[in-house]
Design brief:
The complex is a heterodimer of chains A (658) and B (78).
Chain A: E1 2-8, H1 14-22, E2 39-42, E3 53-57, H2 69-78, E4 90-96, H3 100-114, E5 118-123, H4 136-143, E6 146-149, H5 157-166, E7 179-182, H6 186-189, E8 198-201, H7 203-224, H8 234-246, H9 249-292, H10 297-314, H11 317-333, H12 335-349, H13 357-362, H14 367-373, H15 380-389, H16 399-409, E9 414-415, E10 419-420, H17 421-446, E11 457-459, H18 468-502, H19 516-526, H20 528-540, H21 547-555, H22 562-573, H23 583-589, H24 602-614, H25 619-629, H26 633-657
Parallel strand pairs in A: 1-3, 1-4, 4-5, 5-6, 7-8
Antiparallel strand pairs in A: 2-3, 9-10
Chain B: E1 13-19, H1 23-31, E2 39-45, E3 52-56, E4 60-64, H2 66-69, E5 72-74
The chains are: A alpha/beta (658), B alpha+beta (78).
């Protein structure tokens, strides 16, 4: 198997090419630092060729001195130090035509080290006049490397594939000259074997290294002049115009809030018909199962365990898909870089690097990849603090809980003639999580992680028309992940929960002469879940919750969505009425047997919501934090501080509102 | 005191005179392809003038915080 490394500046389109050539689905976007680890894929064309080639996608670099952990991954791969890719036959440098000079300087350095193994793919040439295509050969001779001109978004993969194949050089090789690093690079390079051809320059000699780099840039500039034509470039002119408004402190900030509010507003409004459709479908199937099966354990497992549990969760598929569709459009357009620009001042105030905006933003999907993407932050203190606070960003697993409770207990009305009270509550919860993430970041930076931060550069990519197809693909992929979770973890837990809330069964004597309603509630309280929940009640009372909600909170530590499915199962079991009635109605109707008042009210709902904003109920997050920091102290600390905040927040919300 | 990017207002252009600062900062700026003699234009500034959004050359857009922008010194004439 031969190996090709994809190298290039951030946001030059390496992952897009990788997906195109290998048929994989790595996340691509229109901003820097999306790829933070390596991925290996076989070329699609391996099926029809005797020469088998694998392709490696790597994080972007601007030069050969790594300045953050993700860049370290790429440099280690070039040095042959990464596991599974210690040998390679070709380095394909991907260059963005709009930033050709800077990337060509990098390619020239690589050529001097690796020789004829370096080939260039000039990407994003979607308009013919950008590069003089009929002069490619002349350009190749000038720079001494093979060149392919393309647009990874528009071209078919066959020609690019053929280009890479025809330039593979087999066999081992040695570096032509030593690779030179600044002393500071060691921090990001990891352990290095002693026999490598490397040179480290300390303070005095570093100036010489800079001169070398400058020489490469000057050389590159001379080489490209006459071949590319970026004057009167449409994308660049449009970007300048749009940034006049979108980067403006006042207008830009207004647009920022309007865009994000609209996203949450549309999740709320657009999803309703789809949600009702799924809800109706699940209820109908569950109704058929209920009426056609004989009474007994099997029927209860199916109707109360599986349909009520899993069905209660999958109704949120439309919201999740709409959220990711809209976020993808925003990312692909290039706006995210501008959002990072506008919020940088705020991030700086709270002791974070401006680069923390992107990991925070991806925390809206899931904390796990977001924590990995914190690798782009060069400074260790800032990186750890970013990791420690990311899980407070509202991830998609919280969404079902928010929508269920807001939909049931926040009265729907219009505020100021435009804002929908429910959508606004929803927006508020997202805001609250983000705001407290920043507050905690500030606290950490002032206490445990004091120290100077690093400065930052932010890439402002050219705006582009976002591809609806790509946005839909992203949204579908997230939808699939969600459905898979519903079919595995949530299904498993629902069955387990059904077992625990059905057994041990009540004896006939215990329910003698009781109505069927009472039988249902007695059996539930007699079960293992009932006993566990009752034992938790003293801790739950101060935050206004009863034992059923406590069980929900407890199982939510497995996955947050389980709160919804647990309540689905518990309420279905405690309810003899087999009418196809949604969980929402059952919760509204639930009455405290002692006081006769509804169990749920606005104060209780907000208490639960606030708990969910803060508490860290996600084992995968704890695992990835341990992996990325190499220490159990961080995940433990994170779990404790977030749990405390959740409980205190819930306590305050309950007492303030009741 | 030499003028730097920080001293430019929105929509103003200037020619880069020299890049100063520590090796790390200079290397970062250099890697973006910013060389003495190049033209840079301020696209916008965020609150209280930081960060600064810059257009360099025909289609290179980026932003940097004040502490780096001050390392890019500019000619006086334009």
């Amino acid at each position: 198997m031969e190996t090709i490394l994809l190298i290039g500046a951030p946001n030059s389109g390496k992952s897009t090419l990788f997906n195109l050539l290998s048929g994989k689905h790595r996340k691509v976007s229109n901003y820097s630092g999306v790829t933070v680890d390596n991925a290996i894929g076989e070329l699609l064309s391996n099926d029809n060729n005797s020469l088998k080639i694998s392709l490696v996608d790597l994080p972007g670099i601007n030069g050969l001195n790594p300045k953050s952990l993700d860049e370290g991954v790429t440099i280690r791969a070039l040095l042959g130090l990464e596991k599974r890719i210690s040998k390679y036959n070709q380095v394909a440098v991907v260059l963005d035509i709009h930033r050709l000079e800077a990337s060509l300087a990098l390619a020239l350095q690589l050529r001097d080290i690796l020789g004829n193994r370096v080939v260039l793919i000039i990407n994003k040439v979607d308009r013919a006049q950008l590069f003089e295509r009929n002069r490619v050969q002349e350009f190749e001779q000038l720079i001494g490397m093979r060149v392919f001109i393309c647009s990874a978004l528009k071209d078919s993969y066959l020609k690019i594939d053929e280009f890479l194949r025809s330039n593979i050089v087999s066999g081992d090789f040695e570096f032509n000259r030593a690779v030179r690093f600044t002393n500071k690079s060691r921090e990001y390079l990891g352990s290095l074997p002693p026999d490598l051809k490397l040179e480290f320059y300390d303070d005095d000699a570093e100036a010489k290294l800079l001169e070398d780099i400058e020489e490469y840039h000057k050389k590159a500039r001379v080489m490209i002049s006459g071949f590319i034509n970026l004057e009167r470039n449409r994308a660049s002119r449009l970007t300048k115009k749009m940034d006049g408004v979108l980067l403006h402190p006042l207008w830009g900030s207004l647009c920022f809030f309007a865009i994000f509010y609209l996203i949450f507003h549309s999740i709320y409004v657009w999803a309703v018909p789809f949600m009702d459709l799924i809800d109706g479908g699940v209820s109908a199937i569950s109704g058929i199962a209920a009426s056609s099966l004989p009474d007994g354990l099997l029927k209860s497992l199916l109707v109360d365990g599986i349909f009520a549990g899993v069905g209660g969760v999958i109704v949120f598929l439309p919201q999740i898909m709409i959220l990711f569709f809209l976020l993808s459009l925003l990312e692909l357009s290039g706006y995210i870089g501008r959002a990072a620009f506008l919020t940088d001042r705020v991030m700086g105030f709270f002791g974070l690097n401006g680069k923390a905006f992107l990991p925070y933003m991806s925390g809206l999907a899931c904390a796990v990849p977001a924590i990995m993407s914190a690798r782009t932050i060069p400074n260790r203190l800032e990186r750890i603090v970013t990791i420690m606070t990311i899980p407070m960003m509202t991830c998609s697993a919280r969404l079902p809980v928010y929508i269920l409770l807001i939909g049931a207990f926040v009265p729907k009305k219009l505020i100021w003639g435009f804002f929908d009270s429910q959508a606004l509550s929803f927006f508020f919860l997202y805001f609250l999580g983000a705001f407290f993430a920043l507050v905690m970041a500030k606290f950490f930076r002032m206490s445990f992680f004091k120290g100077k931060g690093s400065s930052f550069f932010l890439d402002l990519p050219l705006y582009q028309m976002p591809s609806l197809k790509l946005a839909f693909k992203n949204s579908w992929r997230q939808g699939k992940i969600f459905l898979r979770k519903a079919g595995t973890i949530i299904l498993g837990f629902s069955i387990l929960l059904w077992v625990l809330s059905t057994f041990p069964r009540v004896t006939d004597e215990m329910v003698k002469g009781k109505s069927s309603d009472e039988v249902a509630s007695i059996s539930l309280e007699h079960s293992m879940v009932g006993k566990l929940g009752k034992a938790m009640e003293p801790a739950l009372r101060p935050i206004g919750m009863n034992w059923k909600m406590g069980i929900g909170l407890l199982v939510a530590f497995g996955a947050r969505e389980l709160f919804v499915s647990a309540l689905g199962t518990i309420y279905s079991l405690g309810n003899v009425d087999e009418q196809s009635e949604g969980l929402r109605q059952r919760m509204i109707k639930d009455v405290d047997p002692v006081t006769g008042r509804p169990v749920f009210n606005l104060a209780v709902a907000w208490s639960i919501l606030i708990f969910f904003v803060f508490a860290l109920q996600c084992t995968s997050t704890l695992a990835i934090v341990h992996k990325e920091t190499g220490n159990w102290l961080y995940p433990t600390g994170m779990f404790l501080y977030m749990g405390t905040l959740g409980y205190l927040g819930a306590f305050l919300a309950f007492h303030f509102l009741s | 005191m030499a003028r730097s990017l920080v001293d430019l207002k929105r929509k103003m252009s200037a020619r880069v005179k020299q890049i100063v600062g520590g090796v790390d900062a200079r290397e970062k700026i250099l890697e973006l392809g910013i060389l003495p003699g190049d033209t840079v234009e301020i696209l916008g500034k965020s609150f209280f003038g930081c960060p600064v959004a810059v257009k360099h050359g025909e289609s290179n857009f980026f932003a940097l915080r004040k502490d780096h922008a001050q390392f890019i010194l500019i000619e006086d004439d334009i």
